[in-house]
Amino acid sequence: MCDLRWLIRRLTPRRLRNQMIMMAILMVIVPTISIGYIVETEGRSAVLSEKEKKLSAVVHLLNDALGDRFSDYDNLPREERIRALNAELSPITERITRAFPGVGAGYYNKALDAIITYAPSAFYQGNVGITIAADHPGRDVMGSNNPVVYSGRQVRGDILNSMIPIERQGEVIGYIWANELTEDIRQQAWKMDVRIMAVLAAGLISSLLLIVLFSRRLSANIDIITDGLSTLAQKTPTRLPDLPGELGQISRSVNALAQTLRETKTLNDLIIENAADGVIAIDRQGDVTTMNPAAEQITGYKLHELVGQSYAKLFANTQFYSPVLDTLEYGTEHVAQEVSFPGRERTLEISVTTSRIHNAHGELIGALVIFSDLTARKETQRRLAQTERLATLGELMAGVAHEVRNPLTAIRGYVQIIRQQTSLPEHQEYLSVVLNEIDSINKVIQQLLDFSRPRQSQWQQVRLNALIEETLILVQTSGIQARIAFTTEFDVSLPAIVADRELLKQVILNILINAVQAIGARGEIRIRTWQYTASQQAVMIEDNGCGIDTALQKKIFDPFFTTKASGTGLGLALSQRIINAHQGDIHVASMPGCGATFTLILPINPQGNPSE
């Protein structure tokens, strides 16, 4: 029911002139079509009635002309008698059917159980002597001694057939028929329909022309008012001209009302327009009625794009559950609820408060949402918490590394002494394994120390394109080049940025090594640089390897988290720490089986760097 009302509302013209035209058209079309339908139906009935009367006249003419001739030649065998009766009666049926073009007629002899004549003989002479089927209507005519009009498929085809019994001395001795092809009847009815439709079309076109002509004259003054109304909301609106009659009263009242509204703009409107928080209002149908400039700035949508549109359409392809729509539908009011809002260009973290809107009579007319942007605050809190965790972890790792490295140094020294004092090959092999494992532990300890106490940054002018090319030389060994294709898309116009060259090289090298390890047999790694914003540059490293599971993407930057059997889980954590120290950001996008994309966002000139 609601869908029907919505469809009617959408199809109904908004302008009065168009409404007048539609109403007049409906008032003309509905009666005209009704009359045309009645005329067409009655016309078809009249055609059928006329056809039945004509066929009835033919069979009665044939009956009168037959006389007692069916009793002739009763001494002849059946086949010879049929030929003799056909020779005698064919001129009669031929003469009568010639007077009625399109009509087929003939005699049927009950005793001989055969068609005696079928005119016009030029078409139907081959049917003479045929016995009709057991379910043929002619048998009902002879059995009931009543005339029958039948429409359907018979010997001649699809026909309208009029049949009467041949009764002599109180005995039915056969029947007479006259028929006409149904297709001929349809053609005649169709010609009649065409004439009726032509007359109706001419009448409708004439009526429509008259309606349009008179509606223009009647709506001329209304157009003046509607054109003037469109300027009332402007800062310098045009006054409506004085018009005669009731329309003049309307124009003067509208002018007075517009002047009053301009002079009495409410304080609430000014407060909402200048509020720092976003405000969006929707009506009972969920369509947006207003939004303030702060809401436009936060969401990225403009007022003229959303007003009159369904608010729910903004989230049609997302999993977002709107608090204000929940308030409108169920009355649940939300206070300072934090949600992830799908803005136009990015997902926002916002705090929302919702409430229903009622008019002066307490009737529900819509809902209101007031919200503030928490995205920057949330990001700052996230980075601060991460920094605190890393600092605490760094202190712990520095202590552990110190306590472990000293015993390892002593162990390594004694193992080397033992290795020098023994000559057994198996002892040499075992001691080499011990030394290698001690070196591996020392390498992990050095990574922990680098992570806990990163070296002092050495700021300098760095060109990202050249730095990436140097890093690629370290990665592109002969074995890797044989199975992995490296493609670069560098923006040659990029200026140099202020950064720590060696630390950035370490970040890019870590990501490239991870990309190489993610590719199984063969694959591709694509590297791209571009100007991200006026003050930032971007580096994208994309591979088509195994990808990263969605559930793991939030953990890959956590220290000691790794999916590799021999990994330490410090590479990406240290990379993120380096990028954060450059006041940049690192993003990852991946789908399992579809590769991964790492994007580095770096400022051209970080704030507070020593080179300034």
From TrEMBL:
Keywords: ATP-binding, Kinase, Membrane, Nucleotide-binding, Phosphoprotein, Transferase, Transmembrane, Transmembrane helix, Two-component regulatory system
Transmembrane segments: 20-39, 196-214
Domain HAMP per the UniProt entry, residue ranges: 216-266
Pfam families found in the cross-reference section: HATPase_c, HisKA, PAS
Membrane topology: Multi-pass membrane protein
UniProt domain Histidine kinase: residue ranges: 399-606
Superkingdom of this protein's organism: Bacteria
Alphabetized SUPFAM superfamilies for the sequence: ATPase domain of HSP90 chaperone/DNA topoisomerase II/histidine kinase, Homodimeric domain of signal transducing histidine kinase, PYP-like sensor domain (PAS domain)
Domain PAS: 264-310
Domain PAC residue range list: 330-386
Main location per the UniProt record: membrane
Chemical reaction(s) catalysed: ATP + protein L-histidine = ADP + protein N-phospho-L-histidine
GO molecular function: protein histidine kinase activity
Localization (cell): Cell inner membrane
Protein's UniProt name: histidine kinase
Species of the source: Citrobacter enshiensis
Gene behind this protein: atoS
